[in-house]
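[worker-b] picked up task from shared queue
[worker-b] task type: protein-ligand structure
[worker-b] ligand name resolved to glutathione; SMILES cross-checked against name lookup, match
[worker-b] sequence length check passed
[worker-b] input payload:
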Amino acid sequence: MQKKLLTLAVASAMAATSSVAYADLLDDVIARGYVQCGVTEGVPGFSFPDENNEWSGLEVDYCRALAAAIFDDPDAVRYTPTTSQARFETLGSGNIDVLSRTTTWTMTRDTDLGLTFVGTMFYDGQGFVVRESDGISSALELSGAALCIESGTTTELNAADYFAANGLDLSNAVIFVTRDEVVQAYLDGRCDVYTTDASAIAAERTQFPNPDEHVILPEIISKEPLGPVVRSGDTRWFNIARWTYFALLNAEELGVTQANVDEMLGSDNPEIMRLLGVEGDFGAPIGLSTDWAYRIIKHVGNYGEVYDRHVGPNTPLAIPRGINALWTDGGIQYAPPVR
Amino acid sequence: MTDTTEKGVDSRRVQAKTSFINDPKFRAFFYQAALVIAVLGLFLWLWMNAATNLAAQGRATGFAFLGQSSGFNISFSLIPFDRTSSYLQVYFVGILNTLLVAAVGIVLATFLGFAVGIARLSKNVLIRALAAVYIEIIRNVPLLLQLIFWYFLSLNALPVVRESLALPGGIVANRRGVSFPQPIFDDRFIWVALVAVVALTVALVMRRRTLKQIETTGDRRSVWLPFFGVLIVPVVAAFFLTGTQVQFSFPELTGFNYTGGWTAPPELTALILGLVLYTAAFIAEIVRAGIQSVNYGQTEAAAALGLKDSDRLNLVIIPQAMRVIVPPLTSQYLNLTKNSSLGAAIGFPELVNVFVGTALNQSGRAIEIIGLTMLVYLTLSLVTSIFMNWYNARVALVER
Ligand SMILES: N[C@@H](CCC(=O)N[C@@H](CS)C(=O)NCC(=O)O)C(=O)O
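[worker-b] inference finished, payload out:
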């Protein structure tokens, strides 16, 4: 709480005192030697610190891919945990270079906060989890139920929309600032329902004392395209951020993996040659070396590998690829070509 | 010689008049004015810089967002609120909830603080020790931890909804809060309320008179009995004469939760409990210090006059102690009001939670919202200070 207020105060103070807008972030980042990446306070599979405070997850791998592209070193990243509430101020004030944190791309956030979304790392939607003993099978039965929600999220707004649209009573929503309290309050019986992004629910449920006593309701009530965000106005940094994401997708589409990337350097497929920097120089226009995408795949892997590693069917989260599959596999993940 | 002296004096006088640089009054004024200008200049510079930077970042600014609908729900509100309500209404809901916590908290903390402070000086060792232990424990644990402790304790100590505790008087307690039956009056109740206001005024005037009389004549008579007589009899009479109908809305289990009645959510209860226990510990020490600051000779003198224990405290010691108690008490009241913002940590929708938390995040108007919020705490603090200064002037020792 105090920390959050402090962040806000510092952010406002910085807005008031710093004099020039952030000119060229890439130069600053290179001079500094690492990427400062905003993450969650800990959502398994997305960004989660282990006991040695080593962060891992889908969204963490995005930051590692950025660092790999810039420094050829995926560990050249420092992480800043942010609450849902303080995340945009933390980014806007320049305390982090990129926010990679279960953040939904919405029009207000994209156009009104001085921020720009890079792309959609994970297509998600809002879901509900309830105690099995309550015998609820549909969100439409939730009228009058108590909901535990995290403050400053689209979750708050979607719940209000959905309950209003379906004539349900939502006079009982309890809003907490940090993730820990939301989850604890739900587990302690303050609420009947915990609602947030469906992926985060799947992730949190793995941490519940008895995951089997909780059921996820079938309804998905919103679109939650989650993706990285940067400050507006720095085109080069935006391009680096966006093409890092595209490189992950293109690598998967072209069958380039962490294991075979060196072999693929000898490929005679022009698309692969361009991606890996064997033919042409696509790094220079964004201020990076020719092999920027090779570095990403070498150190982090392609999108499919990242997905499977952190949230896929063989992880505790076990989230099917679904619409997050490539367009070639019936999903909607799609990247423009490197050429 | 005379001439020179004369001249010297003269020139000194002239100098004293002309060289305003050495005039202490002018200097004082000059320094103050310079400081004010510097501070204002600094703020102006900060403001303009912020405006330029925000514009450079492509961020919208201004207060127009206050009129837009907020899009979210607030679970506990003293005025009607739903997702179509504006950000301005969010502001008001937050202010009212903060005021509610502050007002209830201040009253309860005062009572508890005075009781513990007096207990701290009790002749009974057990009472004295208990008071001391309470004060030491509470004062030395951070308030935020205490709030979280009370909150999660109350969640875990109370039963789930289906096994709610049924308390006497139709009160129901469970993890979702404590629900009270709520009286619902019809239109005629306005007359009863009017009579109550008049009766209260009359009763207060009468009480004052009686007190004066006691002071001048020394003739002791009951103060509270006539007070409550004057207050209660007309109100009850008005109630029956107008034939006002009262219905009670009882809390009832419908679906997930109890509906009907009035529910104090656990966030509110834990917040008030935590603030009261915390602040009362400080008030107790202030009260103890105040009482001890009164010379023991006063107690002895009062005893020599044959005053009984309670009179000694109420008529001799406390009035003198108040002079020492009131100024630090004021700052405790201010602390309690400001500390209520920690309610955000346990999900109570006070001003910081709903406005700086949710509204700021959904609207992105950081500077405007923080400014408006600081304005509220500043105003509350100033109003409390002004009131307490007025009260302090009243209880201050009249120098004769
Ligand atoms: N996608 C939504 C919700 C994001 C969100 O805050 N999700 C929670 C769900 S658990 C979260 O990530 N909390 C982790 C944290 O606060 O560290 C948004 O962008 O507003």
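[worker-b] attaching auto-annotations
[worker-b] Chain A touches chain B through 58 residues (CB under 8 Å).
[worker-b] releasing lock
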